[in-house]
């Protein structure tokens, strides 16, 4: 099982005070750049808690893929992310 360091309390405080959390970025081991079931459940929960869709950016090696996730569990991959790719 993977080890994840994440400060959920900070993210929740930030969203409650500033309302500017757009999503989350994390890495995956080499060979798997898609969203895992855990990623889908987690993003659904955060989108529901924040009351808005969120981005989920995953880096695997040099590949960065981004999904838009909603509170109902819907996800779709954003294909026009050239600007985001340069940020990570």
Describe what you observe in this structure.
This protein is of the alpha+beta class. The chain has one domain (22-87). Helix content is 35%, strand content 26%. It is built from three helices and four strands. The protein has helices spanning 8-18, 37-50, 82-87; strands at 23-27, 54-60, 63-69, 75-78. A hairpin with a 5-residue loop joins strand 3 and strand 4 (75-78). The radius of gyration is 13 Å and the shape is globular.
Terminal residue distance:
25 Å
Helix content: 25-40%
Provide the low-confidence segments as ranges. Answer: none
Number of domains: 1
Please outline the major beta sheet.
4 strands, mixed
Order of helices and strands: HEHEEEH
**Broad structural category:** alpha+beta
Give the overall average pLDDT. Answer: 84
Sheet-strand content, in percent, reads 25-35%
Give me the Rg, rounded. Answer: 13 Å
**Care to count the β-strands?**
4
Number of discrete helical segments: 3
Principal-axes geometry comes out as: globular
Please give the order of strands in the largest beta sheet: 1-2-3-4
Topology record:
Elements: H1 8-18, E1 23-27, H2 37-50, E2 54-60, E3 63-69, E4 75-78, H3 82-87
Parallel strand pairs: 1-2
Antiparallel strand pairs: 2-3, 3-4
Key structural traits:
single chain, about 90 residues, alpha+beta, 3 helices, about 35% helix, globular
Quick rundown:
The chain is 35% helix and 26% strand. It is α+β, with helices and mostly antiparallel strands. The chain has one domain (22-87).
């Amino acid at each position: 099982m993977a080890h994840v360091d994440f400060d959920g309390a900070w993210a929740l405080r930030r969203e409650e005070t500033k309302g500017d959390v757009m999503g989350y970025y994390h890495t995956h081991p080499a060979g798997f750049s898609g969203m895992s079931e855990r990623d889908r459940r987690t993003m659904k929960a955060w989108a529901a808690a924040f009351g808005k869709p969120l981005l989920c950016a995953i880096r695997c090696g040099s590949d960065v893929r981004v999904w838009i996730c909603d509170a109902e569990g819907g996800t779709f991959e954003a294909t026009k992310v050239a600007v985001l790719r340069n940020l990570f």
